[in-house]
Structures are given as structure tokens and as C-alpha cells.
Automatic annotation (TrEMBL):
InterPro entries: Glycosyl_Trfase_fam3, Glycosyl_Trfase_fam3_N_dom, Glycosyl_Trfase_fam3_N_dom_sf, Nuc_phospho_transferase, PYNP-like_C_sf, PYNP_C, Pyrmidine_PPas_bac/euk, Pyrmidine_PPase_CS. Keywords: Glycosyltransferase, Transferase. One of its GO terms (molecular function) is thymidine phosphorylase activity. It comes from Jutongia hominis. It is an enzyme of class 2 (transferase). Catalyzes phosphorolysis of the pyrimidine nucleosides uridine, thymidine and 2'-deoxyuridine with the formation of the corresponding pyrimidine base and ribose-1-phosphate. Belongs to the thymidine/pyrimidine-nucleoside phosphorylase family. The lineage of its organism: Bacteria, Bacillati, Bacillota, Clostridia, Lachnospirales. It comes from the Bacteria. This is Pyrimidine-nucleoside phosphorylase. Residues 344-418 form the Pyrimidine nucleoside phosphorylase C-terminal domain. Its EC number is 2.4.2.2. It catalyses: 2'-deoxyuridine + phosphate = 2-deoxy-alpha-D-ribose 1-phosphate + uracil; thymidine + phosphate = 2-deoxy-alpha-D-ribose 1-phosphate + thymine; uridine + phosphate = alpha-D-ribose 1-phosphate + uracil.
Length: 440
């Protein structure tokens, strides 16, 4: 078998065999195939795409290139939730405790933030004492005992993805939907859950800027999951505005606590309840009507918040911060962002909003950048909201005066004001299964 022939075959739009895909992935990881040949192959995929068969096989061999997590020691059906990324996306902090309080099992490995999207691990580590590095045995024991645990990725998960992504980054093939799908799903398959729920974000703060592209990506990821024997569903959500009010690390934890108490921002509360209910349905714990009722019940009776505190305690954190969120001390410096005119917020550039949080110190410019857990932004007004001149639209927080000043200047490019009211996008846009796309 020759790499030249495989490149030529894909260049002509022909479907590759499983053996050819295995040859490329394994050969590249072992450094037996040079970058320039794999780069040519990736560009051929960019122009011709991948069939469902190719998608599944490429993803499976990418997943098998490293450690495959075995969750069989955890009792019950394990359901994983994955988001394609966004600004203010703290859903795991709310959804996992709700599902656990309803009797589900969530054994989740999450990542750190890089660029303008925040990382769940960074948010959890802002809770004093919280440990995200846990060995396998303790991880399994915690989930069996409490129903949930969230840790950082351990071992070598999908090394083929890391190598391929680095090459895509310098060959203008990052924005290939099939390659995005294989990248995301290779890590999900390696993570070992039985069922997968995908949050595919859409809008200015997402990888997918249009609903059309988001549906295509969702369908491909669902096809991969189903083809690999994992029941998979995708839900498209709005990322044309930041999710919730808080964007940062500590302040997002506080907002998650408020949401578990039933006091969260309306958009965030809705998305968390919908995702938690869908995870219960995937886990065969409840039908649709029962799932939504149980989600609301565990929020109302406090058992979901108790599960979050229990997880924090078992992972070394101080649960008093969950029961008394005022223990989180605010950032040293704050500055309000003011509406320049009467009218409406007609548009937000959510990517700019996320990058503003990075400027303040809440995110990373590089993988080695230090994070300020107290830095962040409160977005009080979003697209479609009426404003008055001089009214506070957002409040920026930082531990450094110069970073605060830079953040205020940066956010000026994230808000657009006008005289005409606009309708904001729905929070839940569509649901995608292997058989259907259902608009909300």
C-alpha cells in the first residue's frame, strides 16, 4: 500500500477502504508517513469530503491511536455531553449534578480553555481545593458512589487528533466540517461513555456561524457516533450572544450555583434543563415528560445543588463555597460598560466578547498562560434588549488595572447599537438525530 495512491484516490473523490484509512492514521502517528503527504490528503478531504463509512472508520482509528477509557467498572448507562464551544458555556457544572440527582451516571473528562472559549476544568479549579487530576480507580469509585465526577483528560487520548489538528492549523484545513467532526468524535469515542449528547453551538461565538453548517456538522457527528455503536443525539444552541450573564471562571461557577437553585438567567436555565432531560432519556431513566418533570423537581428540592457540593467534596474542594457562593471574593477592579445612545442592542460579536474576557485575564492566549480566576464580564444587556444612553450594559472585572482598561476598549467592538429593534435567536434552535432534523 502506498500513500501516493491513497492521496490520488481521494483527490479523485473516491471512497477509501478501512484498510487505507488505518494505514494513513497509524502510519502518521508512528511518523512513517511525512507531513507533506498527509497535508495533501487532508486537502483532498477538504474538497471532496468523507462518506459516512469513511467518517466512522477514520474517527475509530483516531480514537484507537491512544488510550481507550474503559468505564465498564461504573454501574449503569454512562451518558456524556459535549459542547462544540462557546462563550459563557458552563453547562456541565449544572447538567451533571442534575442528571446525577435523578439517578444517572456522568463520568466526564473535560478540557481547559484556549482562545476565546472557556474550559470546564479551569472553572472547577477556581473552587478552592478542587482536584481535576484523579487516577482511574478513584474516578470510577466517585462516580459509582455519587453519580458524577469531572476530571481533566488523562493519559494519551487520541494522539492522532493532536497531530492532525496541528497539521490542519497550518494547511488551511481547520474549517473542514468532516475533519471537525472526526476531531471531536475521536475524543468522545475514546472517553468511553455509552451514549453521547452533543451541544452544537451556532453563531458569532461558535465554530459554526450558520445554522446550515451547524446542521451538517451535527449530522456527521451523529453518524459517527451511531456508526460506532453509541446512541448519539445533537442539539443546536444559540451562540450569537454569550450564554447566561457571567463569562469568567469564578463568576461562572457562581452562576451555575444560582441555576441549580432555580435562579439562573432564563436562557442558561432553559438550555441546562433541556440537556439534562435529554441525558435522562438517553440513559433510559425517564421518558420525555417524566424527564422534564424530574429535572425541575431536583432543582426545586435542592438535591441537584447537593450533588454538586458532594462532587466538589469528593474531589477535594470546599463544599461550603457551593452552599455559600458569597465566599467567592470579587475581583479587585470593576468598570461598567455604558450604552452610548437610546435604542436597542441590535447585534453582538460573541467572539469579541470572549476575547475581551481573555484580555482581562480570564482565558489563555497560549496553552501556558496563567488564568486569573476572578476576571470576567457580566453581560446585562444582549441582542434585542432596549437600552438608554448611560445605562450599564456590561460590567468588566479584573485583578489588573491595565488589563481592565484594555478589556473595556476591546469590548467596544463587541456591541452594536441602533434605533430598530431586532428579534434575538431562539436558545434551542433544532434537534438532530440519525433520522431527523427538528426545528424548535
Amino acid at each position: 500500500m502506498r500513500m501516493y495512491d491513497i492521496i490520488d484516490k481521494k483527490k479523485r473523490g473516491q471512497e477509501l477502504t478501512e484498510q487505507e484509512i488505518q494505514y494513513v492514521i497509524e502510519g502518521y502517528v508512528k511518523e512513517e508517513i511525512p507531513d507533506y503527504q498527509v497535508a495533501a490528503w487532508l486537502m483532498a478531504i477538504f474538497f471532496h469530503g468523507l462518506s459516512d463509512h469513511e467518517l466512522v472508520k477514520m474517527t475509530e482509528y483516531m480514537a484507537k491511536s491512544g488510550d481507550m477509557v474503559d468505564l465498564s467498572k461504573i454501574q449503569g448507562i454512562k451518558v456524556d455531553k459535549h459542547s462544540t464551544g462557546g462563550v459563557g458555556d458552563k453547562t456541565t457544572l449544572v447538567i451533571a449534578p442534575i442528571v446525577a440527582a435523578c439517578g444517572g451516571k456522568v463520568a466526564k473528562m473535560s478540557g481547559r480553555g484556549l482562545g476565546f472559549t472557556g474550559g470546564t476544568i479551569d472553572k472547577l479549579e477556581s473552587i478552592p481545593g478542587f482536584r481535576t487530576a484523579i487516577d482511574d480507580k478513584e474516578f470510577y469509585d466517585i462516580v459509582n458512589r455519587t453519580g458524577l465526577a469531572v476530571i481533566g483528560q488523562s493519559g494519551e487520548i487520541a494522539p492522532a487528533d493532536k497531530k492532525l489538528y496541528a497539521l490542519r492549523d497550518v494547511t488551511a484545513t481547520v474549517d473542514s466540517i468532516p475533519l471537525i467532526a472526526t476531531s471531536i468524535m475521536s475524543k468522545k469515542l475514546a472517553a468511553g461513555s455509552d451514549k453521547i449528547l452533543l451541544d452544537v453551538t451556532v453563531g458569532s461565538g461558535a465554530f459554526m456561524k450558520s445554522k446550515k453548517d451547524a446542521i451538517i456538522l451535527a449530522q456527521k457527528m451523529v453518524a459517527i457516533g451511531e456508526g460506532a455503536g453509541r446512541e448519539t443525539k445533537a442539539i443546536l444552541t444559540n451562540m450569537d450572544v454569550p450564554l447566561g450573564i457571567a463569562v469568567g471562571n469564578e463568576i461562572e461557577v457562581v452562576e451555575a450555583i444560582q441555576t441549580l437553585q432555580g435562579k439562573g438567567p432564563k436562557d442558561f436555565q432553559e438550555i441546562c434543563e433541556v440537556f439534562a432531560a435529554n441525558m435522562l432519556m438517553l440513559a433510559k431513566i425517564a421518558n420525555e415528560k417524566e424527564a422534564h418533570e424530574r429535572v425541575k423537581e431536583v432543582i426545586a428540592n435542592g438535591s441537584a445543588l447537593q450533588k454538586f457540593a458532594e462532587m466538589v467534596k469528593t474531589q477535594g474542594g470546599d463544599p461550603e463555597y457551593i452552599y455559600h457562593a458569597d465566599k467567592f471574593e470579587p475581583a479587585k477592579y470593576h468598570q461598567d460598560f455604558i450604552a452610548p445612545q437610546d435604542g436597542w442592542v441590535v447585534k453582538m460579536d460573541t467572539e469579541i466578547c470572549g476575547k475581551t474576557a481573555v484580555v482581562l485575564g480570564a482565558g489563555r492566549e497560549t496553552k501556558d498562560s496563567a488564568i486569573d480566576p476572578k476576571a470576567g464580564i457580566y453581560f446585562y444587556k444582549k441582542t434585542g434588549d432596549k437600552v438608554k444612553a448611560g445605562e450599564t450594559v456590561a460590567t468588566l472585572c479584573a485583578s489588573d488595572k491595565e488589563k481592565l482598561k484594555g478589556g473595556v476598549e476591546y469590548l467596544k467592538n463587541g456591541y452594536f447599537f441602533g434605533d430598530q429593534q431586532v428579534d434575538p435567536m431562539k436558545n434551542i434552535i433544532a434537534e438532530v438525530t440519525k433520522d431527523s432534523v427538528i426545528d424548535n
